[in-house]
Amino acid sequence: IDLEARLHRAVEQDELRVYFQPQVDIATGRIVGAEALVRWLDPKEGLIPPSRFIPVAESTGLIADVGEWVLRHTCLQGKKWIDAGLPPLTLAVNISPRQFLRSDIGDTVARILQETGFPPTCLELELTESALMEREQDVVTLLNRLRDIGVRLAIDDFGTGYSSLTYLKRFPLDVLKIDKGFIDGIPHRKDDGAIAAAIVAMGQTLGFKVLAEGVEHEGQLAFLQSTGCNMYQGFLRSPPVPADTFRELLVHAH
Ligand code: G
Ligand code: G
Ligand code: MN
Ligand code: NA
């Protein structure tokens, strides 16, 4: 049977898993949140990465079911951590363009927050530049509805899309995530460093928090610290890990 049919069954039979990658406050070194990243635990094939099934889900429409599963599962996990007395965290969930542009995304998010009891202010939605470049008026309406619900909004892979900087002043956003592609060349490539530093300065002037993605080395972190960048994610601290492992990271770090 094909991947689409298998994925459909995987959602129904709870074969998906959510991994969590720490998001670290650069000034304090503390874990302040996590990005939720889906995996598919196939009984025969083992762990299947999202790069293999998210595009299929997007092109077949299954993304609505997969996306809703990830959102609900992440909020349930976040609520468990709050109830267990862990320090407050922001959990970031990736929303694919097709999932975002459905007119009922606001209703879906509001319903899941209500059902799970997870606080809206602890949930961040990661959107891509390409999703925001679609029908602009619809996008403004969708973003404002999400903003009214109280969730935070982040731009993922910032700097890589066919984007226009005008959307930064038009859309209600909270976080810019600098794409790993700019972080890779730091500190030896002057151009990458200059672009990262410029994104931090511009983003912060516009009132956003800025997060650097894919930080792997101390040299990158030291450079980002010098720019005043707010947060980072990357293998330097931890790859995405299962919930229990993430909880251990939290407990040991605090
Ligand atoms: O987790 P990994 O490091 O393999 O992620 C690969 C890609 O899959 C990333 O671009 C990430 O944004 C995407 N991805 C991971 N989880 C989700 C998800 O729950 N929803 C969507 N839409 N994309 C995801
Ligand atoms: O949603 P997004 O496209 O930003 O997904 C993040 C992706 O980056 C995931 O696939 C995650 O596993 C990966 N990732 C996170 N940190 C690092 C890192 O330090 N190095 C590398 N190579 N990949 C990373
Ligand atoms: Mn992301
Ligand atoms: Na990214």
Summary tags:
single chain; 254 residues; alpha/beta; TIM Barrel; eight-stranded mixed beta barrel; 48% helix; 22% strand; binds guanosine-5'-monophosphate; binds manganese (II) ion; binds sodium ion; Diguanylate cyclase
Please mark out the parts with pLDDT under 50 across 5 or more consecutive residues, or reply none.
none
Continuous helix count: 12
H/E topology pattern? HEEEHHEHHEHHEHEHHEHEEH
How many distinct beta strands? 10
Shape: globular
Biggest sheet statistics: 8 strands, mixed, barrel
Q: How would you describe this protein?
A:
An 8-stranded mixed barrel has the order 1-2-4-5-6-7-8-9, surrounded by 4 helices. The mean pLDDT is 94. The protein is an alpha/beta fold and 254 residues long. It contains 12 helices and 10 strands. The radius of gyration is 18 Å and the shape is globular. It has one domain: TIM Barrel. Helices cover 48% and strands 22% of the residues. It binds guanosine-5'-monophosphate (2 copies), manganese (II) ion (MN) and sodium ion. Sodium ion (NA) binds next to strand 6.
